[in-house]
Amino acid sequence: MLNETHAPDLKCWLASAAPGGDFPIQNLPFGVFRPAGGSQPMRGGIAIGDMILDLAAASALGLFDGLAAEGAALAARPELNDFMAAGRDRWSALRLAVSRLLRVGAPQAEAVRACLRPQAQAEYGLPCRIGDYTDFFTSYDHMINSGRVFRPDAPPLPNFKWMPIGYHGRASSVEVSGARLRRPSGQLPPGEGGRPEFGPSRRMDYEMELGVFVGPGNARGTAIALDAAPEHLFGVCLLNDWSARDIQAWEALPLGPFLAKNFLTTISPWIVTFEALAPFRSALPRTADDPEALPYLRPADGALAGYDIELEVALATRAGGGAAQRLSRSSYRHAYWGPAQLLAHHTRNGCNLRPGDLLGSGTQSGPGPAEQGCLLELSRGGREPVRLSNGERRAFLEDGDTVVMRGWCERPGFARIGFGECRGTLLAAGDA
Amino acid sequence: MLNETHAPDLKCWLASAAPGGDFPIQNLPFGVFRPAGGSQPMRGGIAIGDMILDLAAASALGLFDGLAAEGAALAARPELNDFMAAGRDRWSALRLAVSRLLRVGAPQAEAVRACLRPQAQAEYGLPCRIGDYTDFFTSYDHMINSGRVFRPDAPPLPNFKWMPIGYHGRASSVEVSGARLRRPSGQLPPGEGGRPEFGPSRRMDYEMELGVFVGPGNARGTAIALDAAPEHLFGVCLLNDWSARDIQAWEALPLGPFLAKNFLTTISPWIVTFEALAPFRSALPRTADDPEALPYLRPADGALAGYDIELEVALATRAGGGAAQRLSRSSYRHAYWGPAQLLAHHTRNGCNLRPGDLLGSGTQSGPGPAEQGCLLELSRGGREPVRLSNGERRAFLEDGDTVVMRGWCERPGFARIGFGECRGTLLAAGDA
């Protein structure tokens, strides 16, 4: 799984790609952007340091050949779907070629430098056309904590350790980091009289998740076996599944969340590839009491089916003057089900996944005291507001709050890689 | 709302469009097809009698002008999304122009006749690219009957009469009538030991629904008001929401149905426009005990917010030699919530709908004894198998069963119009 692109001593000739940042030469995440100047079309690129390698420009200079050239032509498009469909050989060939072009001593360094665009001036687009967005429920601690909000002795869900529970979300309202969000209105749970109220949600929340992008996918009526899943796992982004807890409480029985979540989902602009994440694979958390998974969900003995990805949510409040104060911090290594299991389960009944489909990990919470991935858990359903470092308190989000998600991977002997950020500000309710 | 295209005495010069069939001159539904000969590209058309008007051919002959010509150019494409986005003026102008071209005495009749292709030789495609598919739960009787399967004294859901309960379905697996379906496999509810079984579903069911196609849609952060909904309602098809009840029972708590339904949804090839349905509007069923709807869901006094559309499901079994035997029969007039309310609710929180999005009505059951829209209800959860007219019994679907849905509208003083059929055969389980 590891190759020369993962070597920790690789150095890039671009100073801002120095070790310790989100985008060193070992990362090379894909995204779609418009360079400075609003009239230019969107195109695909790769983040390096504080710059973006414009793949269309690099292709035009003839910097790639073979499979890498084929990959670059597809990854340069304004939607990465065709690149995602092209499969692991082309993903990997392009990664290797870009890694070599960016290394200290690369003879083409000056030509490549002419293809770099500053991130600070870029406008990002959705990385691909998302045909379907599925959200899962993979954090055991999130399940336990959320259940206890409503009932202190809530038992675990009986199906949780047998399957990655999932549901379909809204594809039309997945947008890239920075999208505006007005506080949504809707039906709020009834009080004594049984009549629901109507108005802006009073229990707005974030959910700290990862998003997984599907590669080639499968035809309807076929399944992706667990051991074939790596061929279909393109990469990972940060994902904020904004949620209105009061709307959710009233609408979600019996068919699940709907208007409580479909008003917006934001994702980070950069997709970190599973190849870049290879050094950070981890064992799934299992205890002796856990049931043995059914065969279609059972990884080979010793397989590292999880990923150790640190996640953090910070809040920048109006009163706090924009300084971000950490709220949630956990790791994806706590997830009970890993990405390959999501694919295997989703397709086991013959459901077809298409290139660019998005799978949310569900809120990531860990077992520790500050490891809850949303305010519902942190504030115990609003009963125990969280104290921010500037003295403010939050049971749920307030107008003007900016939620900033970050993620990164660190492991001794490997270069740190990061996801950038996924950011959004809650505005006051409008007419809609 | 009514205009010259609805006049019951209009007659078409095509003999097969005689009154009494599904596709008289008063109907004029839209679809996408490939004429006889597999190599020709898909294109848009309008059903008339047993033929299809090829809109690309008719446009090329210069048979339309003005808004109708603009509409025809869009409706001739292999996906109707741009026509759906073009709005009611163009939908209506094209309908009127086609109605006039097809009337007895139309001077262009011979030119139009050259643009007709036989339905019997056509291959149908999905009428549009479906960005998101949402399914609703609008039949009160379906809610009561389904609840009683699990608990004889099950109370009504407290939110049912306050909102059209909805959830997101799978867009990738919506296919046109005739799609093949292998019996899906999955996790089946655990017995005594608490360990789920794995295997082909034993409780396969159909759901008799209508599908509503969205027209122009709305930007994220805005809502479609109830009285603006007609501008956004393009048309209606038949929809079979195939369901695996055992998979559903085990997976659906707490996030709703997922693998129990996302393996396939079939729709009829023809979209009957809301303009064609105008004579069949009906009052929503309400009793004095029902709560007054919240303002955003409250139609004007006397508004006819429902539609009287007869629905029927027949089963053709292997043993029955292909003869269809009626199982379910009901009408959409029993739905508690009408199409405009689905749009108003769906967007009230700012969720954006896109042209070509599909909204399912949910299973349509009525209050009468044989008016249940799925086998789960008809067989009371499998406990009381239904006896078919040839003596066979069905608790759930068996391999080789062909489900045939039909729909039509009849009202004294108006021409009968029909939906054609939505058909699918359940095959034995395969590997996926």
TrEMBL record, chains A, B:
Enzyme nomenclature, EC number: 3.7.1.2
Domain Fumarylacetoacetase N-terminal: 26-127
Annotated positions binding substrate: F137, R151, Q248, T363
One record GO biological process: L-tyrosine catabolic process
Cofactor(s) in the UniProt record: Ca(2+); Mg(2+)
UniProt keyword terms in alphabetical order: Calcium, Hydrolase, Magnesium, Metal-binding, Phenylalanine catabolism, Tyrosine catabolism
Database matches in NCBIfam families: fum_ac_acetase (TIGR01266)
Protein name: fumarylacetoacetase
